Amino acid sequence: MAFFAKGKDKERKAPINTSTKATQSNHVAPTSAATEISKNITIEGHLRGTDSVKIEGTLIGNIEVNNVIIGKNGTVRGSIIAQKVTVSGRVEGDVTCNDLNVMQTGFITQKVHSNIVILSGEIEGEVLAETSINITPTGKIQTTSLVSKRITVNGSVEGRLTASELLEVGSNGLVNGEISVKNIKTDEGGRIIGSMVMYTEPTPTVEPNKPEVIEATIEEK
């Protein structure tokens, strides 16, 4: 079987033939303990539970757990919903979490929605970081929309960027695209290319008052 729980007696584990490809179709696997998908193992199906998942092989399906770790050899083709996600491999799908850490070898496509993001790898897609995103010198983003309160760029960003509180471009940072910022700080050596406008808070939409309908009866004399 492709899953095995940590904490079991090591002597009881059956040896795994890494040349075998295990496949489960249309299956939802509940996980209540730490679960690992090993290198050279492919699983088709969804994972849902309350603990942790570590993926060094391939998962074709969605994940909904507390903690997800994608190893350097790991690939997920599906969406991820979790509290904490660490990506050293590849994710081809949406990621929704509270804390996202994309390591130097990590790669994400599609949409990212997180509270805090630390990016040392690559993201191609839309990014919403509610509180902050920190792009390290090896981090790269190609996006149609990057939105956060505080954005720190020491790597590179290409696309549309919105910082509602502060955009900070470090000495190794490059921002290329359409920029909307409230405050900006640029270190010597930092580069900004493209258009820039002042960020303004969105105006709440107020529905117009509907005319009051009065019912009346006309009597003929």
C-alpha termini separation: 91 Å
Secondary-structure-derived class: mainly beta
Give a short account of the largest sheet: 25 strands, parallel
Count of helices?
0
Which overall shape is indicated by the principal axes computed on the Cα atoms? globular
The count of strands amounts to: 25
Uncertain segments are 1-32
What percentage of amino acids are in beta strands? Answer: over 45%
Mean pLDDT: 84
Question: Rg to the nearest angstrom?
Answer: 24 Å
Estimated helix fraction: under 10%
Give the H and E element order. Answer: EEEEEEEEEEEEEEEEEEEEEEEEE
Question: How would you portray this structure in words?
Answer:
The chain is mostly beta strands. It has a domain at 54-198. 0% of the residues lie in helices and 50% in strands. The protein is globular and about 50 Å long. It starts with 27 loop residues before the first strand and ends in a 23-residue tail after the last strand.
Short key terms for the protein model shown above:
single chain, 221 residues, mainly beta, 25-stranded parallel beta sheet, 25 strands, 50% strand, disordered N terminus
Summarize the model shown.
The chain has 221 residues and is mainly beta. It has no helices and 25 strands. The chain is globular.
